[in-house]
Write a structure and sequence with these properties.
- There is one protein chain.
- This protein is mainly beta.
- The protein has an 18-stranded antiparallel beta barrel.
- The longest helix has 17 residues.
- It is built from 1 helix and 20 strands.
Length: 314
């Protein structure tokens, strides 16, 4: 009996050592969306979809490897009773990070960041090298088709970033000025019609955060095939090119909920079509660790939609 207990204790110790440098995290969300169209020619829809994300990180000293896998289901059931389903399993991120002689190295496939000017997209087979010289971060990125050099740092609390490509530059300035947070970004392309800018300004007054956001992406640009689902305006379809957008938003806490209200307008590059939007989002954490979020979107004279989302992180 004692030998069995000893063997079990040794096995448990070996197991904990084997998994000491491996961590698993992720998130899961399920959405139910109902959309009502103002015109009789539009077909009302009811959609259920999910997005499950699993991230595995392994570490050995200063080296780490990340594998991020996503499963989505764009199942839709319309009022007519017909349904379509699409299961997808994608590797979102798969990369290795390490440090060699003071230079940070990242190699593999990963998504870029979302912003007001575009959804983050996946780039395969890329390498990123960066180091800090006299307080200035110097970064080189190459994906075998495009390459860039980025200089970034802070001056008197103001963050500056300047990325240089072969055919364009991408400059960002952000900071807090007298209690007002501001971020400005400018993409200067060799092709004038591909220039674009964005501005976001926010401040807090008596527990209410007030935000103004605007983008100007000239007609013909290939830089803005929609804006981020994590940015101010929400997500547009990949086939929608936004020429201009601007609007205001307010957000606050109310009875344990996070409540935000946004009103903005967009201008399509194709045909200069202007569209007004109103969006109300209510988010509430649940006792079981999950979060429920209700989003009501009024696309003026086109449609109204209610999206109910249940989400959990682990």
């Amino acid at each position: 009996m004692k030998k069995q207990l000893l063997i079990a204790a040794v096995a448990a110790t070996m197991t904990s050592v084997a998994f000491a440098d491996v961590s698993i995290s992720g998130a899961a969300q399920v959405n139910y969306t109902t959309t009502d169209y103002d015109l009789a020619s539009g077909t009302d829809t009811n959609t259920i979809s999910h997005d499950f994300d699993l991230k595995v990180t392994g570490k050995s000293g200063a080296t780490s490897v990340v594998m991020d896998i996503e499963n989505t289901d764009a199942g839709a059931e319309q009022a007519s009773g017909s349904s379509t389903n699409s299961q997808e399993m994608n590797v979102k991120n798969a990369y290795m990070k390490t440090s060699i002689a003071g230079v940070n190295v990242k190699m593999g496939t990963w998504y870029g960041s979302d912003s007001l000017l575009g959804n983050g997209s996946q780039t395969e087979d890329q390498v990123s090298l960066d180091t800090t010289i006299s307080g200035v971060k110097v970064q080189y990125e190459d994906n075998m088709s495009t390459s860039s050099v980025t200089l970034s740092g802070s001056v008197a609390g103001v963050k500056l970033s300047h990325e240089i490509f072969d055919t364009k530059t991408d400059t960002s300035v952000s900071g807090s000025f007298g209690g007002v947070n501001a971020t400005f970004r400018s993409i200067d392309d060799d092709v004038d019609t591909a220039d674009s800018t964005s501005l976001e300004v926010s401040t807090e007054m008596q527990g209410v955060t007030v935000t103004y956001a605007a983008i100007d992406a000239n007609e013909g640009t290939t830089d803005t095939t929609g804006v981020s689902s994590d940015a101010f305006f929400g997500e547009f379809s990949a086939s929608t090119t936004i020429k201009e957008a601007d609007g205001f938003g307010v957000a606050t806490s109310m009875a344990g909920n996070t409540v935000s209200l946004k009103s903005y307008s967009t201008m399509l590059a194709a045909g200069n079509v202007e569209q007004d939007w109103t969006k109300l989002v209510v988010t509430r954490p649940l006792a079981n660790g999950a979060t429920v979020e209700a989003t009501y979107t009024d696309k003026d004279s086109v449609s109204t939609a209610l999206d109910l989302e249940l989400r959990v992180k682990f």
